[in-house]
Design goal:
homodimer, 643 residues, alpha+beta, Glycosyltransferase, Maltose phosphorylase, domain 3, 10-stranded antiparallel sheet, 7-stranded antiparallel sheet, 17 helices
Chain lengths: 643, 643
């Protein structure tokens, strides 16, 4: 069943107001956005210079100098523009307004008369424009700038950047396509497709949809950039950079699994789902359902991370989920959340929301420190710092968040996601509104009866309780997600229990909603052990701990060195204790035994096993939510514990 | 206490005759030596062409062409000469004699008038002779050729190659040393030191010892090659190729652990131990004891493998012993056995023999297939073939033995070790003979009373039983090793129990030995579980299975896919069953449970833990000796099993 009458909700109409997320959003708005502005302008001591703003200044003729950074350096600033645009939902800040106007003005000045707009090629390699589609990232940069333009337009109504980007898109439309004299290809790094669909949803102009559709359908169908030097230079020497790295090994309907570069794959499927929604194309929807099922069923970490290998930043093979040398890039988890949101538009099934929530509450927000100024690119599920620092195969694993990256896709990505979180809470189809996440918010929506608002107060993720107040015109139906981990899910309407019809994991309370009605959702969330499919070698003999959407981890700082020496005794229930940590979170405790290293000589590697002589000691493992790890210095961490 | 009156036993005087080893030696003599001769002469279809013999032919002016192969290609042939020379102990073969004469003649013709002898530099880069000490391998090649020359001389009395090599060593002596106009350095890849000491022990000429002593003592003391381009070209871009890679970061007495390239380190310490023996130098002995203890106590796999990382083929940090991406090169385990033998000469303590035996019975002989024609370079302790084939961090792991390697150090190394195994059984100090390995053999030795022989018949490694017959002149004392795994160790003399004095793990039966005496050694060897120090992350929550010197492993072919889904129940004893495998070995069986993957949907990665709903199924794991793995096709294998 295809749900085709989607209302794409403007992110500014869902203002998050939530005890869990407010701090994070405030941190993003008040700390990370100014911090990143300084980094992008090379004004932050101790952080790697970005040069992203300077590249635009040079391209605009305002400064002299050379291009520095990666080919996709422009996109870091684009994501910052998107984040800053969203931030105005939460705080009107004249300084941010001024910075936005300044950078948008610069971008306009950097744009060439024909609409071209990529500072790497303008400044460094003009002869190679549009000749390095596989690696050039021109379309990727356009995508992020277009997303930024749409964000700016939706939140503030200012279409200056959108007009710049329309001209850029028109140039691309004139250059790409089937037929004589056209470049018949598709982006080396997907991103523009989903951005074009955002522009289409925001403006209604079908030219954006048509270009997105062309890129989605053409991929893996025509030879495209697979015949180019910029493809071959990597493909010839690296088996992990073949056509599948780019998801260009087959047309999307013939792809069986998410393959290749994880962020590329997530962005591709996100754009494809938007295209499928617009086209009402059952075969494309079926392909995406198959791909999503395979991805989350065989290639996703418990934290919602995807991408098992640093080389190629990519998916590997089914069930290959090493915990210490995974890649699980922050951007890839954001991509999985984005894709899952699009799947909810195609079909509101709670399984999509479960995964979206898993990614957001774990792998996405672990990407940023509590101080908002340190970032993970790679989010491993197990870290031994001495090993991570030493070993060549851990080269991409940082055991502590860092201030910035040379390749800095993740920091602005997590910040734009936090500031744009309102876009993930609801989807709407006609008068049917689906609440996917119990995140406190104030939403201003419309139904056939007229405008209405939803005010949600929530205790998630700590307790399964949310109270929703409906105000305004009657006519909307609110479908409430029943999370997969919820027990004894009940809804009260105006204080009285109300019967619900549950469809695909969404509960629809009986009776129409009208002004002043309240809905109280409540459910229990037990802390529980999770086991992995025995096909996952690395998780065999281990369990993880989860409560609600939160995956927990053990850190050395709360426990002892050699965390792997602990073994949980699954007979005992998981305990919960109020702590002083992180403003007073409750920590979980697991009962078991550990083999105490102190009972072993430092120069004694092996011992004949005999019960009681292995240094066995009763022990309790304290566990904190995964996303909070490494906020108290460097140390061992593990999500999966021996059992 | 230093034992300084060592008699270095000529390998030809200990002829192995043993039910376990005869097959392996016969395989080496009858199959591998002719096979490798063909490979080295580029006459073996399907194996990578070696070009090693051709390089000598070209250098000798017998053929025209260019050098091909690695800089150390000559050493592959040198190891073959050593193996073939030893093989004549077991089989006088006119064909091998002819081949030896042919290749030695070629080497003589390739030698330059000043004694220089390295085909890479003669043919390809004459201007760079002695200018690339860090990477050049000239001294390494000399070392292997000198070992070959000594083997040829000791077994057959033919000194033709020894004279060639003496001239080559004289050239090196004239070039290297302290003082004006000399190259004050040490080898980039150690090997010549131990070879020089072999030449010294065989000839008594102190010039060999003096050069070895210079190289050992100079290493890490003077700047040496650390100032050269051939060092810097790697060091500047690879943190794993710094001075410690070459064991040149400190003088040997100031080194704390075996660091760097594992084979280099093992060869270095082997040569140093021989030098310490000759010098009677307590500080050097103490340094080696410390290094050996640290190496086997913190950096050695249960199989006797060393070298935890493929990048740099090297040691990493203490307790870093991953089972799937280890390096554990066949050559490094051979090196550990060689070094341990030298430690036994310095001090006959059973701990050294335990490790020597562990390496020989596990990581060394796993390097060659049962057919003698397929080889492992890397000997992992856990393999999942699909992962090993796919992942970038498994690039050095082959899940099946291969016919040859471009860098083919291991195949001839394991063959020369098998053919020279007689050198590992005994050490002798005056009238005290120490039997370290219960390997059946016929030994012709001498003591103060005159010549005597030992005939040892053994049932090892399957049963703890050996019968030794003494013949000839009285006067020798035979010290019998008490293996660390032996239970109820007893000795009978001429059929009657005899009291023994046990010192450092060696039992000396009461009373003098005289012609016709028999000693019967017997001990029990239980199959038992082994646990690792909790500091070893990868082995926590797991056990291994060992019986006598043999480490066992589970293979998919005997069990099921997803071996890691099995969990041993340590309450049950390990079973032993007669099998039809490998000519009728007994396999070990471990009782436990497995989580059956069939009880999980292929697209279901995670499940809330509930006892009984994880697919738990009673299961028995069949285990075979580790060295036999991968002789029945490709499949999963693991040494460490969940428990």
């Amino acid at each position: 069943m295809l749900h085709m009458e989607q209302t794409i909700i403007n992110v500014k109409n869902v203002r998050i107001n939530d005890s869990f997320w407010n701090n994070r959003i405030r941190n993003a708005v008040e700390t990370a956005i100014p911090y990143q502005w300084r980094v992008l302008n090379d004004n932050e001591p101790g952080a790697e210079p970005s040069h992203a703003a300077m590249n635009y200044k040079i391209a605009a003729g305002v400064e002299k100098g050379e291009f520095h950074g990666f080919r996709f350096q422009d996109s870091d600033l684009a994501k910052w523009i998107e984040a800053a645009s969203f931030s105005l939902i939460y705080r009107q800040d004249p300084e941010v307004e001024r910075e936005l106007e300044e950078i948008i003005d610069l971008i306009g000045k950097a744009q060439q008369p024909d609409g071209y707009l990529d500072t790497y090629y303008i400044l460094k390699k003009p002869e190679a424009k549009w000749k390095e589609i596989a690696q050039g990232h021109e379309l990727y940069v356009t995508g992020h700038l277009l997303e930024a333009a749409v964000a700016r337009y939706l939140v503030s109504g200012d279409d200056k950047l959108l007009k710049i980007m329309e001209k850029n898109v028109d140039l691309i439309r004139s250059l790409f396509g089937h037929g004589e004299g056209k470049i018949d290809s598709y982006p080396g790094h997907e991103e523009i497709e989903l951005a074009l669909m955002k522009a289409y949803f925001a403006t209604g102009d079908r030219k954006y949809f048509e270009l997105a559709n062309y890129f989605i359908e053409n991929r893996g169908t025509t030879i495209g950039f697979l015949d180019d030097e910029s493809f071959k230079e990597f493909a010839e020497t690296n088996k992990h950079h073949q056509a599948d790295y780019y998801q260009a090994h087959a047309p999307i309907r013939q792809q069986d699994a998410a393959d290749g570069h994880a962020v590329r794959a997530m962005y591709f499927f996100t754009g494809a789902a938007d295209v499928a929604l617009e086209k009402k194309d059952p075969s494309l929807v079926a392909a995406l359902e198959k791909l999503w099922k395979h991805t989350v069923g065989r290639r996703m970490y418990l934290t919602g991370g995807v991408g098992s290998q640093g080389v190629g930043e990519r998916f590997t093979i089914d069930y290959d989920l090493p915990n210490d040398v995974c890649y699980t890039e922050t951007c890839a988890a954001i991509g999985l959340a984005m894709w899952s949101l699009r799947m909810l538009r195609l079909s509101p099934e709670a399984k999509y929301a479960d995964v979206m929530e898993r990614a957001l509450y774990n792998n996405v927000i672990s990407g940023v420190s509590q101080d908002g100024q340190h970032y993970f690119y790679v989010n491993p599920l197990a870290v031994k710092p001495d090993v991570a620092h030493y070993r060549a195969d851990h080269a991409s694993v940082e055991p502590s968040r860092v201030k910035w990256f040379g390749c800095a896709c993740c920091p602005p990505n997590v910040v734009r996601t936090l500031c744009g979180l309102g876009g993930y809470v609801y989807t709407q189809e006609g008068d049917d509104v689906y609440q996917h996440l119990y995140i406190g918010n104030e939403a201003s929506l419309s139904c056939s009866g007229g405008p209405f608002s939803l005010t949600c107060e929530s205790e998630m993720p700590w307790e399964g309780a949310a109270r929703i107040t409906y105000r305004g015109a009657a006519g909307a139906r609110l479908h409430l997600r029943v999370p997969s981990y919820a027990k004894n899910f009940t809804v009260k309407k105006n204080g009285q229990p109300v019967c619900c019809t549950v469809t695909n994991g969404y509960a629809l309370p009986e009776g129409a909603l009208s002004d002043g009605d309240t809905l109280e959702v409540s459910f229990e969330m037990d802390a529980h052990f999770v086991a992995a499919n025995p096909r996952v070698t690395e998780d065999c003999g281990k369990v993880a701990v989860q409560r609600g959407p939160l995956v927990y981890c053990a850190e050395q700082v709360d426990n002892f060195e050699y965390l792997n020496s602990f073994r949980a005794d699954l007979k005992y229930p998981i305990g919960m204790e109020q702590s002083e940590l992180f403003g007073g979170i409750r920590v979980l405790t697991v009962t078991g035994m550990r083999s105490d290293a102190a009972a072993w000589d430092a120069d004694e590697l092996y011992r004949d096993y005999a019960p009681g002589s292995m240094g066995e000691t009763p022990a309790t493992l304290r566990m904190v939510p995964y996303f909070l790890w490494n906020n108290r210095g460097e140390g061992e961490m593990t999500v999966w514990i021996n059992a």
